[in-house]
Design goal:
Layout lengths: L1 E4 L5 H11 L3 E4 L4 E3 L5 H8 L6 E4 L2 H11 L6 H6 L3 E3 L3 H9 L7 E2 L10 H8 L8 E10 L5 E3 L4 H13 L3 E11 L5 H10 L5 E4 L2 H10 L9 E4 L2 H10 L3 E4 L4 H10 L2
Parallel strand pairs: 1-2, 1-10, 4-5, 4-7, 5-6, 7-9, 10-11, 11-12
Antiparallel strand pairs: 3-9, 7-8
């Protein structure tokens, strides 16, 4: 099976290797590029204020990596990390693993269990709502998205879930703050990559989508492409809805766990 993995690098290549090991012909065609901020003073200020927060919610692995990367110059070390008692909230195991890699203790991390039906803000809230009391402060670490016309906006990838979580925190009497730690944008394709994408619309390839925003960039890169003969596996209902709205003829839903994704891909054989 030919599989097109659209995740951000380096995660895309890691999934390619996993799929290749199962006998599939996979390749990486990232539909989002992640970049550092030009000005990171806001991220550094947020680190200094961490002791005042009940919890910090990281929207993705990249939110973790760039938040810690930008704070290394101001003396981030394991001793300082141990002194901070704020909870670390994530919606999935990949982001939780990133926190562990940066020295956050496992007992400080809250995330939906691996057997959860979905990894999203709703599932996270089921884990953490009992922690929240009126007057608590929660920080959400996210990115900015660079649109196809060059305009910056708050990162809206699965933004409905994020807004949902923020509203539930506000309803519980908490204060919600946001900090932007990185920038996301459309990739700049080579001619070969464009050829892969155009062929993938009709050659029976299976597209793997883990971001609704990626589908928006795909449309901007190939605005006149007919996707009615294309097939996709999406890792969240909102992403599946975006794939159908883009015009994909076959869209399957799978949890973002490799075994589940693999099963969905192989069901299309």
């Amino acid at each position: 099976m030919h599989v097109i993995v659209t995740r951000v690098q380096p995660q895309a290549q890691a999934w390619v290797e996993l799929l290749d090991a199962q006998g599939h012909d996979a390749l990486a065609l990232p539909l989002i590029e992640v970049r550092s901020l030009v000005e990171a003073s806001g991220v550094q200020a947020a680190w200094q204020q961490l002791p005042g927060y009940l919890a910090v919610m990281f929207v993705s692995r990249h939110a973790v990596d760039f938040f810690y990367k930008e704070n290394k110059p101001i003396g981030l070390d394991l001793y300082a990390q141990a002194a901070i008692k704020s909870r670390a909230w994530t919606t999935g195991p990949g982001t939780a693993n990133a926190l562990l890699e940066h020295g956050v203790a496992a007992q400080q991390i809250d995330t939906p269990p691996e057997q959860a039906g979905q990894f999203d803000s709703e599932a996270l809230w089921q884990q953490v709502h009992g922690q929240v009391h009126p007057g608590d402060k929660v920080l959400i670490v996210r990115g900015n998205s660079l649109s196809a016309d060059g305009a910056l906006s708050a990162d809206n990838d699965t933004g409905v879930g994020r807004d949902w979580l923020a509203q539930h925190l506000l309803d519980a009497g908490a204060q919600v703050d946001f900090v932007v730690a990185y920038q996301r944008g459309a990739p700049i394709w080579t001619a070969a990559q464009r050829d892969v994408a155009e062929a993938g619309a009709t050659d029976g390839s299976v597209w793997l989508f883990s971001s609704a925003e990626a589908l928006g960039y795909l449309q901007s890169l190939l605005p006149s492409q007919d996707w009615s003969a294309a097939r996709a596996v999406a890792t969240h209902p909102r992403i599946a809805a975006a794939a159908r709205a883009t015009g994909f003829g076959v869209v399957l839903l799978a949890r973002p766990i490799f075994a589940d994704v693999l099963a969905s891909i192989e069901s299309l054989a």
